[in-house]
Amino acid sequence: MSVYVDSMKPCVPTNYWRYNKSCHLVADSVPELHRFADQLGLKKSWFQEKSSPHYDLTEGMRAKAVELGAIELSIIEFVKVIQRNRSRG
């Protein structure tokens, strides 16, 4: 099982997200994603389950995630992980 991050992308700040860049943290399983997010100090309330289970990360949190072992993926590789996870159900 692994945890992954994609590249930082521009985004529009909202009432819930004040940053202008973000990336996504996903894993091969939701329990693994939550364990890793806990190591990063992320709140479980930040978990987003809608289209694909993930957490949004700031640039600093992304760097910390990589230090803790998250695998950096290109957008194509990242989409493949999401598709694989969806096919598992």
How is this structure best summarized?
By secondary structure, this protein is α+β, with helices and mostly antiparallel strands. It contains 3 helices and 5 strands; from the N terminus they run E-E-E-H-E-H-E-H.
Overview of this protein structure:
By secondary structure, the protein is α+β, with helices and mostly antiparallel strands. It has one domain (3-88). The chain is 38% helix and 19% strand. The chain has helices at 30-40, 59-67, 75-88, and strands at residues 3-5, 9-10, 21-27, 55-57, 71-72. Strands 1, 2, 3, 4 and 5 form a five-stranded mixed β-sheet that branches. The longest helix has 14 residues, at 75-88. The radius of gyration is 12 Å and the shape is globular.
**Number of beta-strand segments:** 5
Give the total of domains. Answer: 1
Total count of helical runs of at least 4 residues: 3
Helix content: 25-40%
Label the overall shape.
Answer: globular
What share of residues are in beta strands?
A: 15-25%
| Average pLDDT for all residues | 93
Topology pattern, helix = H, strand = E: EEEHEHEH
Sheet having the most strands: 5 strands, mixed
SSE map:
Blueprint: E1 3-5, E2 9-10, E3 21-27, H1 30-40, E4 55-57, H2 59-67, E5 71-72, H3 75-88
Parallel strand pairs: 1-5
Antiparallel strand pairs: 1-3, 2-3, 3-4
